[in-house]
Amino acid sequence: MNLWQNYIQPKNLSEAMDAFANAPRPLAPIAGGTDLLLDLEQGRHSPVQTLIDVTGISEMLKLEIRDDMLFVGAGIPVNRVVADPLTARHAQALVEAGSLIAGPQVRNVATLGGNVAHALPAADGTIALLTLDAQAEIASASDTRRIPFKELFLGPGKSSLKHGEELLVGFYLPLQKHNQASCFKRIMRPQGVALPILNCAVWLERNGNQVNDIRIAVGPGGGTPFRATETENALRGKTFNAESLNNALESLLAQAKFRTSPRRASADYRQHIVDGLFRDVLGTAWSRAGL
CA–CA separation, 90 vs 63, rounded Å? Predict the structure, then answer.
């Protein structure tokens, strides 16, 4: 049985929006297909009549500086995001997250947009982008707009994108300045597919021994990608020392809603290991910001 009947390959956003408007429905966009094809084969995705291949859309394949921000196209393969000097300079947490997504073969075809659009609360690319204060660019038949990254997510596996009407074009990230840095790390099982048990990303700005500003994301810390805002408040404006770090960790444990996953870890285990992971990521970002 065919998983689809029509396959369309637009070359730009205009052609893509025309396909979204006129192609036989139901339809779905496809990039690397590393999640979608498995979901279709295994019945986790409703049947589709048309697949719209977005890997040739020129607007989604750019990685460049635009108006004092870094633009990362949603159609770029993860390995290209990892290898690009611009992401290494301005989004180190995203580079570190991307390098841990699946294996090398998957990263050669899987896209950052697909990782995000799947809307999983512990997706590595998603957690990194959340802490980097990303904005998402979305195209529809009527316009192209930017929204805060957090607004893309409604629940586990549920995106706010209007299915069959809107397309995730890419992400805008603030350029990294002096005394700013980011870091991403995760704890995972060593065997088989290395799914994250817990991951964490931190972006911060320091002034001497003081935390000027900070953003923290942990996955999974809830039903949607989780910003640890109370933990941020516990550190922002404070001297970086053992006392402020312990207070921040207490805030993280109070705010995060860890859950039990049969294939990954129990909520109690995640709560136990987040201490070491958080201290490690925060300490690395702090050291980098002082270089």
Answer: 12
d(CA 119, CA 190): 24
Contacts of 197 (CB under 8 A, 6+ apart): 186, 187, 188, 189, 264, 265, 269, 270, 273
The C-alpha R_g of the chain, in whole angstroms, comes to 19
Q: What are phi and psi of 166, to 5 degrees?
A: -125, 150
Would the CA dihedral through 227, 276, 274, 231 be positive or negative? negative
CATH class assigned to 180-289: alpha beta
List the domain boundaries for the chain: 6-53, 60-174, 180-289
**For residue 191, pLDDT beyond 70:** no
- The structure tokens 């999983």 sit at 120
Q: How many residues does the chain have?
A: 291
Q: Determine the distance from the C-alpha atom of residue 60 to the mean position of all C-alpha atoms in its chain, rounded to a whole number.
A: 16
Q: Cβ–Cβ contacts within 10 Å for residue 229, how many?
A: 12
Percentage helix, strand, coil, to 5, in the chain?
A: 35, 30, 35
Tell me, yes or no, if the pTM score tops 0.85: yes
Choose the CATH number for 60-174 among 3.20.20.70, 3.30.950.10, 3.30.470.20, 3.30.465.10. Answer: 3.30.465.10
Domains 60-174 and 180-289 share a fold: no
Kindly indicate the confidence band of residue 90, based on its pLDDT and cuts at 50, 70 and 90: very high
Residue with tokens 């690397």: 32
